[in-house]
Each structure stands twice: as C-alpha cells, then as structure tokens.
Amino acid sequence: MDNEIQLISDGDGLAVIGNATDIERFLISEGLSSKGHEPKRLKSVFGTGAAAAQAGSDIAASSALWVKLTAESAQRVKKFGLMDSKTPGISHAMVGKPGSIKNWLQIDKGAGSFLSNPARLSGAAGLMAQLAMQQTMDEITDYLATIDEKVTDVLRAQEDEALADMVGVELVIGEALTIREQVGRVSEITWSKVQNTSETIATTQAYALRRLDALAEKMERKTRVGDLATAAKEAESKAPEWLAVLARCFQLQDAVAVLELDRVLDAAPDELDRHRIGIRIARQNRLELISRSTEHLLARMNAAAGEANAKVLLHPTKSPAVVQSSNHVVTGIHGLHGRLGIESGRQSSETRRWAVAAAEVRDRALETGANGVGAAKSLGNETLDRARTTTGRLAGGIAERVRRRNGGGDEEGRDAEG
C-alpha cells in the first residue's frame, strides 16, 4: 500500500503523521485544510516543550500536522473507523491510497511504529491538547482585536483588588510562556511563578459573570419600552467589556493549562494522561459556566427586542433603539461563543452567517421603526382630519340650528306683525 499515513484524534483535533506530500494530499482530498482551520506543524510554537520531547523523533516538523476538528470535519474523519487506543481519549487509524484508487482507505496493518509506543502516543496526546488550547488562545486574540475592547483598561477601572491583580497575572503568565519557548520546558522555578495565578483568574471570571447576570436581571425587571430602552443601552455599553474580560480569563486559563501539562511531563510523566483528561473536564466546566450566563443574557435581549417590535407603533422611537441595542449585544455573545467553541456543531462559519442575519434583522427593525413613525404620523393626521371634519359638522349643525331658530323667530315675528 502506497501513501501510508497515521491518524490520531482526541476529539478536538486530528494529527496526521507520515510523508509531507502524502499528508498534504490527504488533507486537501478530505477537505480538512480550510481557511480559519489551517494545519499546524505538530512540533511548533507550543510543541517545543516536554510534550514534544516525549513524542519523540517521529513528530518531525516535516512529517506531522495537526488540524482543529469542526463538527463537519469530525464526521468526515469517522469514515476511517478510528479505534480507541490504550491512551485515554485517543483514537487512531492507519490509512493509505493505492495508485489506482482515488479514495483513502483504512489499512489493517497493526498500530504502526509510532502508535505502538505508549509513551510517544501519550506525549503526542499532550501535545495535541496544547495545540488545541493554543488555537483557542489565538482566536481569542483575534476576537479582542475585532471588538476593540481594552481588557486591561476595563480591569484597571474596577475598584476590586482581585481585578487589579489580573493585570499582574497577565504579565507573569506571558513571561512564563516566553521562557518556556526559549528553554523548551517548564522548570520548577518557572512553574512556581504561575501556579497561584489560577485563583485570581477564577475570581475575575466570576466577577465578569456576575456583571453579565446583573445586566440580564435588570432587563427582566423592565416592562415599559422606555425603561427597556434605557436598560438595553446600558447592556450595549457594558456587555462587550465583560465579554472581553471573560475571553481574556479563558485565554489565560488555557495558557496556564499548557504550562501545567509541560510541568507534569517534566516532573511526573506517568500522570500525564490523567492530568490531561482532568484539564479537559475542568475546561468544559468553565465553558458551561460561561454558556449559562451568556445564554441568560442572550434570552433577555432577544425577549426585549421582541417586546419592542410588538410595540413599535406605540413607541416609534424607543422600540427601534431597543432592537438595535439588543442585536449589538447578541452579536457580541455569538462572537464569543464561536471563539470558545460553545454550542456543539455551530462553529465560526455559522456564527458569521448568524451575524449577517442579525444585521438584516436590525435593518428590518430600523425600517419597521421608520415605518412606525410614518404610521404614527399618518394616524395622527387622519385623527386630526376626522376631528376637523367632526368639528366642522358640529359647527355646521350648530349654525344650522341657530339659523333655523333665528329664521323661525323672524317668520313668527312677521306673522305677528301681520
């Protein structure tokens, strides 16, 4: 069998190991190389530490690539029948492509030289986990640049001491990552500087979640469109700031996890698999916590927009303002969800489509608001016309009665005189 390559998956990403040319052909033919999900060298950036060392020489820069799996690409990979390995959470397969056959086929050829080594497979799994977190960290950096929220400025503006400490935590973690990249490992000294940062990050995350919950609760308490417009405007102003803080917290937590995996490999390599799974579970718990709060706010903003739309004729100015503010907040929430991978199966491409749809809804809402103003004016003019007509008729009737009365009186007077 020609063109043999090895596939390793941890559910979040796929490592493809083999000849560089074969890897490229495989990724292209299976649609696994796309904009926004470009393959990364398995031994690159965050692959310079202990995980890369344990993975061994098989993870060479020219013979191993890693791609992030989306819901769609994960389904395509399933057809190769990846089998569970002895390394928890890791599945693998060998595939090949005979010269006369266009499709890649699974090869019944045993585990292969790389997969047969548990230590190397464990190291590769750790490296893949690091790369997945690095991918999210990069996407969060792009997200923060896109929304132009200065997280440091937001944190410095708070009186809470723990939030102020976050600025220092960012510097400490950034320094540790720089040292790791240069040295290739996380020493005890380096780890001692960052191991206590998690508490500060968690405190800041909890604070940001409370602020988002407070915005949602304020929206719940408002029923009048005018009050909704005020609360929605506040949410439009404040929500992006706290969403940005949440994104930064998650990014730093991933950075600490990357350093932690390397430290475990350096100090207790036998515990790597258990630790990797523990980090994955803790990370998922954080995602669910963020999802609950943001979904709560999302529901309230959508409900407010619905209420405002229903009363646009009564409130032609404030109703469109509620819709516009709500759409702004909702778009920001979906943007964060897309970066963090919240909502299984709804990746960034769908988020972008949702953003376009949201813009259309916003435009329609504004148009509806404009029409509402016109309708209100039209209704007012018609009422005025009816009032004028009624007044004219009333005045005419009164005049007629007066005329008749006067006319009748003259005739009676004339009769009497006659």
How would you describe the overall organization of this protein?
- The radius of gyration is 33 Å and the shape is globular.
- Helix 7 packs parallel to helix 10 and helix 12 runs antiparallel to helix 13.
- The relative contact order is 0.09.
- It is of the alpha+beta class and 418 residues long.
- Strands 1, 2, 3, 4, 5, 6 and 7 form a seven-stranded antiparallel β-sheet that branches.
- Among the domains are: 115 residues, no CATH class; 158 residues.
Features:
single chain, disordered C terminus, alpha+beta, 418 residues, globular
- Globally, the shape reads globular
Structural class: alpha+beta
Q: Give the DSSP E fraction (strand runs of 2 or more residues).
A: 5-15%
Low-confidence stretches: 44-48, 344-358, 369-399, 408-418
Distance between the termini: 135 Å
Q: Roughly what is the average pLDDT, rounded to an integer?
A: 76
Q: What is the number of beta strands?
A: 7
Task: Encode the helix/strand succession as letters.
Answer: EEHEHEHEEEHHHHHHHHHH
Specify the biggest β-sheet: 7 strands, antiparallel
Radius of gyration (Å): 33 Å
Number of helices: 13
Helical proportion?
Answer: over 70%
